[in-house]
Amino acid sequence: MSQRQPPKVDGGKISRRDFLKLLAAAGTVMTFTPFVEWGKFLPNPRESSEERAKVVLPDGSQANVNTFKVNHAEAVVYPMSEDPVLNEEAFRTWQFIRLPAELGGEKNDASAFRMYSMVCLHLWCLWKYWPEEGRKRGECPCHGSMYDPLTGEAFAGPAALQAPPSNVLPSLDLEVDDEGNIWIKPPNWTPSGNGVVGYGRFLT
Ligand code: FES
User: Fold this and answer.
1) How far is 34 from 23, CA to CA, in rounded Å?
2) Which of 53, 95, 142, 144 fits a disulfide with 157 by CB distance 3.0 to 4.6 angstroms?
3) Predicted confidence (pLDDT) per residue in 168-186, tens digit
């Protein structure tokens, strides 16, 4: 059985012939590397719609103030793409929270709800809301950052030590129609507006 020969080295230098072979191999790899359009990876202003969008729950229904439980959260995709693969991107994943009663979650209007990017501001793991007594906060499983459900501000762990705007989660603005259906208002993807996913938001 013939064995593959390592590139010949001449006085510490690779030979011209082997250098050309390596160049050809690198070209082949580049040719077959899947092409990913970088701009498609993140939600960005180009995708922002002037129209409001439904808060679509995992069961496909639109969130409604009359049925969504107090002190409860679901993961929601925004902006929703027609490509199901893109909809699985962490950068499109938001935690839709109805606040606990003591923080105003029993009100029947948009003030009872919050919608924050689930990408932790520390190193981009996905955090989630824990409704249990004694918790009622967002927690990241990676290094323990904790987020205030009322504001999205990190109050413990490494994300809390980061300078603004990287200590406050991006947040989407919500509104409720006459039937109680909940909608996402068109966002402003800047740190002073709704924030930048994975980077943060200035608290106003
Ligand atoms: S990635 Fe969330 S605490 Fe480090």
Assistant:
1) 19
2) 144
3) 999 999 999 999 999 999 9
Atom of ligand 1 nearest to the CA of 127: 2
pLDDT tens per residue, range 5-20 = 443 434 444 445 444 4
Read off the CATH number of the domain in which 67 is found. 2.102.10.10
Could you give the CA distance from residue 159 to residue 33 in angstroms, rounded to a whole number?
35
136 within domain boundaries: yes
What phi, psi does 77 have (nearest 5°)? Answer: -95, 135
Q: Whose CA is nearest to atom 1 of ligand 1?
A: 123
pLDDT tens per residue, range 95-136? 999 999 999 999 999 999 999 999 999 999 999 999 999 999
Answer whether residue 179 is part of any domain. Answer: yes
> Could you tell me the residue range of the domain that residue 89 belongs to?
49-184
Residue 100 in any domain: the answer is: yes
- Any domain includes 176: yes
Both tokens of residue 16?
């011209």
